Amino acid sequence: MSLSNNNNTTAIINPKPCNYNCGTRIYWNTSENAYFEVFAKKKHICPNRSKSNNNVVTQTTTNTKPSYYNKFAKQYQQQPKPKMSNSLELLSGPIEDIQKKYEILSDIVIDLGGKTHGSQSHIANNNSISLIVYFEIPEGKREEMKRKFDIHINTKLENRIQINK
Ligand SMILES: [Zn+2]
Questions:
Q1: Which of 57, 114, 122, 136 has fewest C-beta within 10 Å?
Q2: Measured in angstroms, how far is the CA atom of residue 34 from the centroid of ligand 1?
Q3: Distance in angstroms (rounded) separating the CA atoms of residues 111 and 109
Q4: Would you give per-residue pLDDT tens digits along the chain (165 residues)?
Q5: Does the pTM exceed 0.90?
Q6: Ligand 1 center to residue 29 CA distance, Å?
């Protein structure tokens, strides 16, 4: 290695690949206090470094939950879905009665914020059936539901007795 060659490269101290894996070989330029590119001999403004800065910004944004999420979470907490309890009602009698009873029952269940899940019917004899109606209803509303249903059914029965008289 000749002396002149050494002099020619004194400014290039410990060239190394850029830390941000952009593939450029760089060296620390002591007079400029900056990394210079070995071949271009100009200040290295790394494209990967700005990308990685963006990444940092993005990560910060994802770490902080956006405000709409918090709003949604609050609303959700304010209106929690009521706990549901499941039950069933056995309706039996003539088919036309069962239809009315089922309609009354499902109306009451829906009014109280519940819903019917389905039913199973059993033919008891030629003219009458048994219908099991499955439903869910908000916890604590089951008694109210049974009371309302009884009142409706009794009213209907009374009406029929009056009509029959
Ligand atoms: Zn670079």
A1: 57
A2: 12
A3: 5
A4: 444 444 444 556 789 999 888 999 999 998 889 999 998 999 999 988 765 555 444 444 445 555 555 655 555 555 667 889 999 999 989 988 888 899 999 999 999 999 999 888 888 777 889 999 999 999 999 999 999 999 888 776 566 655 554
A5: no
A6: 15
